Amino acid sequence: MRDAQAKTTYLKDYSPPAFEVKSLDLTFQLYEEGALVTSCLQIKRTEGANVQSLYLNGEDLELRSVKVDGALLDGSAFDVDDTSLTIGSVPVEFVLEIETWIKPQENKRLEGLYKSSAMFCTQCEAEGFRRITYYLDRPDVMTVFTTRIEADRAKYPKLLSNGNPIDSGELGEGRHFVTWHDPFPKPCYLFALVAGDLFCQQATFETCSGKCVDLSIFVDHKNADKCDYALDCLKRSMKWDEEVYGREYDLDIFMIVAVDDFNMGAMENKGLNIFNSSCVLAKPDAATDNTYQRIDAIVAHEYFHNWSGNRVTCRDWFQLSLKEGFTVFRDSAYSADMNSKVVKRIEDVNILRTAQFAEDAGPMSHPIRPASYMEISNFYTLTVYEKGAEVVRMLHTLLGEKIFRKGSDLYFERHDGEAVTTEDFVAAMESVSGRDFTQFKRWYDQGGTPEVAVTSNYSKAERRYTLSFKQTCPPTPGQESKKPFLIPISLGLVGPLGEDYTLSDTGKLNGQIFELTKEEDQLVFENIDNEPIPSLLRGFSAPVKLTFDYSDEQLLFLMKNDNDGFNRWDAGQRLSVRILQGLISDCQKGRDLSLSESYVDAFRDVLTDKSLDKAMVCNLMMLPAESYLIQLSEQADVESIHRAREFVRLELSKSLESELQSVYLSNMESDDEIDLSYKGMSQRAIKNMSLSLLSVNSGSFFLAKAQEQFKTASNMTDSLAALSCLLNSTERAVAESALSDFHSKWKLDAQVMETWFSVQSGNAKFSDLSSVKKLMELPDFDISNPNKVRSVIGVFCNQNLPQFHEKSGSGYSFLADNIIELDNLNPQIASRLLTPLTRWRKFDDHRQSLMIDQLSRIFDKENLSKDVREVLEKTLPKSE
């Protein structure tokens, strides 16, 4: 039977809590067979609430006792079921004491309190606290937590929770305790507990007011040498947040704990951040440059949440983007300041276009503030995070840096210690700017990706240039028609020498920003001597699909001359999409494939331009991803897309062979000590990009250099890049030998083994489905570990597209088999794995039928989780 209790929650039905919790004292007695949890709540009925009974959330709990004001209640005074505890009649103000027994060692959902190896740890966002004790598990119930943890000292010498430690001692029989107090009211989703035998790396940070904060990272002892970088990142983040946002840290200590088994990347629990090990552990020989950059961004993101999420939190889960979108915007700005603004912008937009736009166009499409949900875990999406950040970025663009900072200051000042809504955030921006953002707020409530079509007209005689704009937004689930958005469009007009024209005032421009508010509008520029080339949506100033009928020559010109670095890259991407789409059509029609010399020469110019940032060169050389080409297709032909893209790579490899070899050789590092600066990372990036492109042609130079680099590399970036290139070689025995050597060296390092899995499962030339299944049979693989699942199953189904979409449908059956198994273990991960099957409408009738069959098979599973059920109900075709 399917989950009969799954129900939909609607934003329109929100009502304030009937009770407030004045304080919460928690006691955890941890044992190997389980944990005894005692909660003591001081509760007061909310003024004006006409409710006599108290309803508390609770799941997978064994209720031991309930007391009200010290009196033990018998069974007639309360009702308990699988999801709640209801006490029939309670006073206006009272003390409630509840004792529950839980079994963390059996908790494979990784929500609430669970064990990762020998460590107790928690994950309470979004609704995990109800798996610890009965409670008002909602973000608008905020209280002060005091937490006492008792455990065996030998097995669990470190006992950690939120806030500052206020007491500790021995209990006898080898047990000890530590008591923690967090003076800042918080919702229960920010509660954290960790108990284990952990190594602690420490440092200090002096805040802007002179306060000394103790910083600690707790890890397994085997990872003691992987903490330094994360600590440096934390210090940089704290300093940046003080300088850019005026936010000073508020507790005496800040702690991070690395956990191997974790559903997410990291969690911002107040003062005690819990991280997926892959997002915090690093040393040069065991972590790539991408890992280092990811750690820097995630450490910053979780730290920034201390204000944008913790001190000011969200009223309900519909407001999730209030904290996540704002904080992603903040961590993106931090990363841009630490490295390159243009390169960071390209990276962010790539994610948005290839993944979030696809989400917007799919059955799970939703506004950044959804109107309803069945399972909130399904809405930790790119729309909420990445598109949410873009909405904040548009406010920053419209207001400018100084006024936006005033708005954020006011927001934090007004709402410190409160649970608020997106309206509160926008209201602060309105207050400091005097602007009315009523229309802008449609970005929060209307789903889908707006489309802006632009046309131009030039009158030589009148020296007048006109740009006409038209905005539309396609229907999305539950929203057939959309009202016009406020879309900030940053633009320039590029002259024949690559110069930007001075934009004459038409009354519609704010500097170089045009605010498109109507369905249709125009800009008229006077005194333009020569027809310009418009540079539109500079810096990707709004998350929209913009079309303009550029000629190939215009795109080549912008690719070389646009003063906006992002649009220079975007011109190359637009041209590549056009070239690839033509080649895809040729593949389908059985024509011979060819590539124009001018297109190849554009890449040659980029590769040999010494003035360019090396990381920028890598981005300019990058072709649009197969997943993006699928998204742009009316009906995706995966084989033709793959063939066309590989053809372009092969032709570039052949035509640019000497230039690629020169770039590779000139960027070899001479020092043994790895340079982890942006400059050092960029140098390795361009070297390995060159090697990767050479690997397509698999010549003797490539094979010798790849083998040499693999054997001699002193860092994981070069080692893994060489290994990945060898998998493209025609010498399969060489590749398999390298894989074996890599495994022998790193088999005891869980994080490195995840990359070893990924580099194989994502390579269409090296791995088919049978290869991936063999990976899952290895003792290194564990289906209960989310990172292993993502590195094998997730990578294969989302990146190895030709093999996943193999016409027999075996890839679809494989994914369905694993979703069914995972639904019993970890519904969150099962639900997230569903995405490739939900996009069945993009493919031919044969594949559509195969994918729908597998979705239906999953739907027929007994006791289907509401996580998976919600996605399937929105994905499966509706019966006529």
Can you summarize this structure?
The protein is of the alpha+beta class and 880 residues long.
Sequence-ordered SSE layout with sheet pairings:
Elements: E1 9-10, E2 19-30, E3 35-45, E4 54-57, E5 62-68, E6 71-72, E7 78-80, E8 84-87, E9 93-102, E10 112-116, E11 119-123, E12 143-152, E13 158-161, E14 164-172, E15 175-186, E16 193-196, E17 199-206, E18 212-219, H1 228-245, E19 253-259, E20 266-267, E21 272-276, H2 289-304, E22 312-314, H3 320-338, H4 341-360, E23 372-373, H5 382-399, H6 401-415, E24 418-420, H7 422-433, H8 442-445, E25 451-459, E26 464-472, E27 487-494, E28 509-510, E29 513-516, E30 520-525, E31 533-536, E32 545-547, H9 552-561, H10 565-588, H11 597-608, H12 614-620, H13 626-632, H14 638-655, H15 657-666, H16 678-697, H17 700-712, H18 716-727, H19 732-746, H20 750-761, H21 769-776, H22 786-799, H23 801-804, H24 810-825, H25 827-833, H26 835-838, H27 845-859, H28 866-875
Parallel strand pairs: 2-12, 18-19, 19-21, 22-24, 25-32
Antiparallel strand pairs: 1-23, 2-3, 3-9, 4-8, 5-6, 5-9, 7-8, 10-11, 11-16, 12-15, 13-16, 14-15, 17-18, 20-21, 25-26, 26-30, 27-29, 27-31, 28-29
